[in-house]
Input
Amino acid sequence: MTIIRAPRGEKYTVLRRAIINDGRLSFRALGLLTYILDKPDNWRIEAQQLSDSHREGRDAVRTALTELEAAGYLTRRKFKNDKGQFATDSVVSEIPTKPALVSRSGEPGPITNTVTEDCVGVASQRAVARNPIYDALVEACGLNYDEMTKTERKRTGIASREIEATGATVEEVHRRAAIYRDKYAGAALTPSALKSQWGACAQGKPSAADAAAQLKGMIADAKRRR
Output
């Protein structure tokens, strides 16, 4: 491939090579990170505006932001706005809080055959950060974390972050999961399904069996937190 570079007199952005060579990032996430880092400090924008500016769907932008968060380039902060509503603010940093794994040559890069199996395990744990809401989703949906695939863990992580951003509690996760079972009898209850129907399950009275399951899940969560 031939590379034609522009004269250095043109406006350009200085970017750390460690970012460009961070193999944890897809090209979509890398492009989004580059676009954001090109902006002035304290620059603010919504995901929808990012979607509109570069012909990417809103879900694709959110997926890329989640990927940047998993790699440590983006951190989210929950707060209450002037109206008393829960909101989320994101901060993007040029230096990730979770350093990239390195190869034997010392250069940042993707996980390859030169990385030990132990490192791969650590990377998987970092990519899917567990928290009380995450564990509540696993419990409420009747899943076993140790038996979940990498894709299931990732999807659960995405669902838990979006649900957590609403200010939900562990008890609320179990309550709405019980309502979901009662409301959508016969439909599979998964973390992603509960997330998509989160608002629809705000109201409702779960069946006695689901209420008992909810109580059981809450007790299990309380024991884990001790």
Q: What stands out?
A: The first strand starts at residue 74 and ends at 80. Confidence is low (pLDDT under 50) at residues 102-128. The beta strands are 74-80, 86-92.
